[in-house]
Amino acid sequence: MNRFRDFLNRSLRQYGMIIALVAIMIFFGFMTGGRLIWPRNISALIRQNAYVLILAIGMMFCILTGGNVDLSVGSLVALVSAMSGLTLARLGLPSWLAIILSLLTGLLSGIWQGFWIAYVKVPPFIATLSGMLIFRGINNIILDGQTLPLSGLYVTVGTGSVPDIIPNTVPDFLRIGDLLQLQNKPEYLNATMLVTGLILSVIYVIVVIFSRQSKKRLGYEVQPLRLVIAKVIAFFIAINLFSYWLAMDDGLPIMLILLVVLYGIYNFIANRTVLGRHIYAMGGNIKAAELSGVNTRKIMFLVYSNMGLLAGVAGIVTAGRLMAASPNVGVSFELDAIGACFIGGASAYGGVGTIWGAVIGAFIMGVMNNGMSIMGLDVFLQSVAKGMVVLLAVAFDMYSKSKSRLG
Amino acid sequence: MSEYILVMKNITKEFPGVVALSDVTFKVRKGEIHALVGENGAGKSTLMNVLSGIYPYGTYSGEIIFKGAECRFRNIRDSEAAGIAIIHQELALNPFMTIAENIFLGNERARNGVINWDETNREAAGLMKRVGLNEKHTTQVKNIGVGKQQLVEIAKALGKNCELLILDEPTAALNDDDSDHLLRLLQTLNREHGLTCILISHKLHEVIKIAHSITVLRDGKTIETLDNSVPVSENRIIRGMVGRELTDRFPKRTPKIGDVGFEIRDWVVYDPLDEERIIIDHVNLYVRKGEIVGLAGLMGAGRTELAMSVFGRAYGKKISGTLIKDGKEITLHNISQAIENGIAYVTEDRKTAGLIHIQDIKRNITLANLKAITNRYVINEDEEILIGKDYRDRFNIKSTSVFQKVGNLSGGNQQKVVLSKWIFAAPDVLILDEPTRGIDVGAKYEIYKIILQLADAGKCIIMISSELPEILGITDRLYIINEGRVVGEMKTSEATQEEIMSIIIRSSAGR
Predict the structure, then answer these.
(1) Torsion from C-alpha of B435, B439, B440, B445, nearest 10 degrees
(2) Are A272 and B356 an interchain contact pair (Cβ–Cβ within 8 Å)?
(3) What value of ipTM does the predicted structure carry?
(4) Which residue of chain A comes nearest to B359, CA vs CA?
(5) Quick one: pLDDT at residue A135?
């Protein structure tokens, strides 16, 4: 009994966030009469909430350095969208050039803030609070209250999918949608999506097997075989189920590719690079990190510059989905991102948190956003609900920490 | 002196995977000074945390009887209300508040939440007099030294009318003068006011000097309670603590000393806060390969400042002078340059500057030399595990695995992790700042062995220590530092404690 409880405790801590995400999905799936998990809605959920995920990834690094946040990202999203309007709609530049210039705007804004924070030692809260005002102001100056239409690559990134290049010859037995008698029955299955999902899942299995074998050969520790097999099967099924789901709608959203790539890059930086280690070390104990040769100023500079760049990406994605540059876009995006990080298990004191956690936190935020909208819940009530979830997530974290504290 | 004021009976306290206290019985007589000794991790602090309600009733098993009544403390307030006060090793003072405010923090002289400043100040002055604290009650705590801060803590406890005062390593951070003063104060309070004290200390000579009885804990169990009315010997206590007689407190070796490996010339450093104030005044010293050089001196003599300013300017302003390593001059602008040039500094402040407590053993060990396990910007985490295991085995770091967070290790094992970190950085010059502070006898011996191994591997070792027996026990040569200057140099084999102290005192008087 005791061992079982021990096991339960450990797996709860390890997979607690995924369990929470699934529970919230089931809850809203139930409350919306299944509409939340319709394929159409899942791809909409990804597109509508991509900004949270992109910003949360950058925000996680800020928080890791020592519980610091960036309050300016919402305004920066607005500024980047205004830059897009300026370059594309007003100046008539090609959309690829407009995107590059907009990204550059984000990066430069991040560098601007990073400079004040890292080298002048302005506390991040204050530096980014001022950024919040400055960037929003510039947005309004550029747009002058107008909304400018966007087109071209912006719309592709914001709303597009990978075209179905494989002729549609999906066998009947795969059309489970018909069998389940979904209300908005998908007409066809996107074969490209199905094949992509299958290839990715096979690659995943091969990579896991090979890396385990090479680890064994080199004398490193490996996880027990049964656990690995269970994990591989679970992932294999999950990936294919997910791709099947998206195939019932319009296939692979370009946005999803972007998200996966960003996750891959930043997860790699956090876990496998010296820079990532130094960020965690700094958040854990800044004095000890400095005495071990960690250049904490440089890290602050890089982390906030990167946050600017990612806010640029989020700005482009948001503007593309709305197909417009507007003066009041991005309001309170920073709070969504910060909330996602804390829901995802970041410590408010820094040094603890994962990119994976930020992603899950962002999805929880997204499911709540979508679920409550579908339910037709009042916007203000939605805000109350989100606030409560962030509070409870951190409270639960504190509680479980105090339970597991060693003397 | 016969009646027991405190009886802790059959106390057992478990943490996930560890039994910290197993069936411990601990009795304190009214009006005595009772010392509690044991190696780090023996369970002293845990026992006191149980007593003071930090681990509330129900999280341990056993009985606490204080003044004849059974106590079930739910928190510190409960135990304080009963008359038990605890002073932790890390002082719990607010540096930006005045002495008087600190004394009554949490115990304000107030009516309906409004503070009565007259009463506060008057009573504070009275308490300060009782503990012999000669400062204005309006002085901010950050402006007084650690020794005086310790007195503020005692005054704070007395302000709560405590009958049983627990002191956890009160002299660990104090110099000899302040320690003496504190111990005498405890004796006075004990004799004149009948205050019962529990004293946790690693400094056995202090324990023998002032305690009436001594209880020894080992591995979470009570070993024995010794009557110290006729002073017992240090070796007698050590036998109880480690379960064997420690015949040699310092390991033996025959030094193999080579050429000069590291030299500091004309080193001058100014205070970072006050750039007019000179902290290190034209210091010259050298270390040969395979040699252990001690830096002796009082606390505040500038030894730490010297070491840190050499270590990539981690301390100080307007630094000038020359560093010569293997006959070549080196310039170090920052810490990572110092590490790259083969210099390591093991901080005296293990808790706040040596380790990252929320990270595990292996990550702490590799932090200063991630390059060694990095291939084209990518860290090889598998190799990191192997390295962690290697050091864990070599230095006998007591832990469940290399994945254990260092915050959960005992002081001695934490220090072994810090040393592992710097040894993994593969330095040629190691500066060790108080490497055995707050560590028990058994672990000290292990740390000494590691230091000697490093010297035998041809490293240059500079060791700062405030414990003269330790300097005399393991160094080959020593410098005496006072007020930022080198005031003496001698071979350790020709040095005595008395001689070193008299050089320090004469050099202070000569200024």
Answers:
(1) -20
(2) no
(3) 0.81
(4) A284
(5) 95
Exposed e or buried b per residue across B495-507, where buried means at least 16 C-beta atoms within 10 angstroms of its C-beta: beeeebeebbeeb
Separation CA A122–CA A113 (nearest Å): 9
Alpha-carbon distance B377 to A273, whole Å?
Answer: 6
Helix A274-284 × helix A254-272 angle, to 10°: 70
Contacts of residue B13 in chain A, CB cutoff 8 Å? 407
Residues in chain B with CB shorter than 8 Å from the CB of A289 are 356, 367
Could A293 and B335 be called an inter-chain contact, meaning their C-beta atoms sit closer than 8 Å? yes
**pLDDT given at position B17:** 57
In this prediction, residue B504 has a pLDDT band, given cuts at 50, 70 and 90, of confident
Residues of B in contact with A281 (CB under 8 A): 356, 359, 363, 367
Cβ atoms A244, A194 nearer than 8 A:
yes
Residue type, B9: K
Q: Closest by alpha carbon to A285, among A301, A296, A274? A: A296
- Contacts A9 to B, Cβ<8 Å: none
Alpha-helix runs per DSSP H in A218-354? 225-248, 254-272, 274-284, 286-291, 296-322, 333-343
Determine, for residues A274 and B335 on separate chains, whether the beta-carbon distance falls below 8 Å: no
| Confidence band of A36 (pLDDT split at 50, 70, 90) | confident
Q: Which helix (H) or strand (E) holds A26?
A: helix A2-31
Q: Which of B55, B336, B347 sits opposite A293 (nearest CB)?
A: B336
Please name the member of A273, A274, A352 whose beta carbon is closest to the beta carbon of B358.
A352
The whole-angstrom separation of Cα B417 and Cα B422 is 9
pLDDT single digits (tens) A90-137: 898 998 999 999 999 999 999 999 999 999 999 999 999 999 999 999
The Cα–Cα gap between A79 and A126 comes to 19
Distance CA A45, CA A368 (A): 10
Burial of A61 (0-12, 13-18, 19+ CB in 10 A): buried
Dump pLDDT digits (tens) for B299-324.
Answer: 778 899 999 999 999 888 899 999 99
Q: Rounded CA gap, A312 and A110, in Å?
A: 9
Neighbours of B223 (CB within 10 A): 17
Cα radius of gyration rounded to whole Å, chain B: 24
Query: Which residues does chain A have within 8 Å of residue B49's beta carbon, measured at their own beta carbons?
Result: 407
First to last CA, chain B: 50
Which residue is listed with tokens 């009557």?
Answer: B227
Element holding B462 (H helix, E strand): strand B460-464
Q: Is the pLDDT of residue B246 over 60?
A: no
> Looking at CA atoms only, how far is residue B461 from chain A in angstroms?
18
Q: Residue A164, Cβ neighbours under 10 Å: how many?
A: 18
Retrieve residue B266's tokens.
């004309």
Vertex A316: Cα angle to A315 and A319 (nearest 5): 80
Closest residue to A293, CB basis, from B55, B339, B356 = B339
| Residue of B423 and A164 predicted with greater confidence | B423
Which chain A residues are within 8 Å of B345, Cβ to Cβ? Answer: 291
B68-107 pLDDT per residue, tens: 888 899 988 889 889 999 988 777 888 888 999 999 988 8
- What confidence score (pLDDT) does residue A57 get? 97
Contact between chains at A220 and B374 (C-beta distance less than 8 A)? no
User: Which tokens is B16 given?
Assistant: 């996930």
Query: Is B16 close to A406, i.e. CB distance below 8 A?
Result: yes
Asked if A284's CB is within 8 angstroms of B356's CB, the reply is yes
Rounded Cα distance between B244 and B93, Å, is 39
CB pairs below 8 Å between A and B: how many? 96
Amino acid identity, residue A303?
V
* Cβ–Cβ below 8 Å for A220 and B382: yes
Q: If you average pLDDT over every residue of chain B, what do you get?
A: 88
pLDDT score of B506: 77
